[in-house]
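In response to reviewer comment 3 from the previous cycle, which asked for concrete evidence that the modeling workflow produces usable outputs, we include below a single protein chain processed end to end. The sequence was submitted unchanged, and the resulting structure tokens are shown without manual editing.
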Amino acid sequence: MIVLLFLLLLAALAGVLGLVLKITLVIVLTAILSLTTLVAIAWLAWRHQWRKFQRAAGRGQTTIDVGRPSRDLPGPRDDRY
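The workflow returned the following structure tokens.
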């Protein structure tokens, strides 16, 4: 940190502080954007693996198993009346 401040002081003395600040800003913003992108990708991958694990373990099921549906035709007698 002190080295960075020293370099900024030297740049200010040389009269190129604006250029140095712009370059530093580009480097810092690039690093922040790259880190944010990597964290987002890691989070999505972790969430995908966690859901896959829950499905494999039988957890996280939101449906109720009611058995196999029958395909029988109704009988000849009408019980509605």
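Residues 61 and 71 are 26 Å apart (CA to CA). We consider this sufficient to address the reviewer's concern, and the full set will be provided in the supplementary archive.
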